[in-house]
Amino acid sequence: MSAESPGQQNEHFLRVVKRRFRVWRGQRPFWAGLFTILGGIPIAYFPYASLKIGHMTLAMATTAGAGSLIIGVLLVTLGLTMWFHHIVRVFAGVAAILLALISLPVSNIGGFLIGFLLALIGGALSIAWAPGKAAEAEAPASSAPADGPDAPLVPGPQVGDSTITQKTSAHAEGGRNSAG
Prior knowledge:
- It is a single chain.
- By secondary structure, this protein is mostly helical.
- 58% of the residues lie in helices and 4% in strands.
- The protein is built from seven helices and two strands.
- The chain has a two-stranded antiparallel sheet with strand order 1-2.
- A hairpin with a 2-residue loop joins strand 1 and strand 2.
- The radius of gyration is 30 Å and the shape is flat.
- The termini are far apart.
- The model has no long low-confidence stretch (mean pLDDT 78).
């Protein structure tokens, strides 16, 4: 690579990063985690937000502010769990749906329905997600029979082999071989 074209190196780096992110995203319920995280943010934010209009302050402070904060933080945590521990995606999805439902009475109608709907969709996507099949598994199977010349060899003695019966009978007689 010449010093006159440094843009190609950056372009290559960006393609590698994009490809790695696409592979990472395909191995886990990415969109479910994103919707769940985005659902937790308004649920936790709105009870503590205050809007200033001129000299007037509009605050949405409620008595359930701590409950809203806990629900929002748990939803963000569940979204991150869906990304980094996708093996527990069903548990995380069910928990996200339950927390979204609990946020309706606790947190200003679930973050004014924005957080409720996002968390509900994220939980449902997490439950419905299934890992994809590997590229090798999708290759068509060979039409050759298993007994054919291309059949894989099985290492070690076979079940009907005479060495197995000799070893078994020798072991049964205390280590002495009856043949010799």
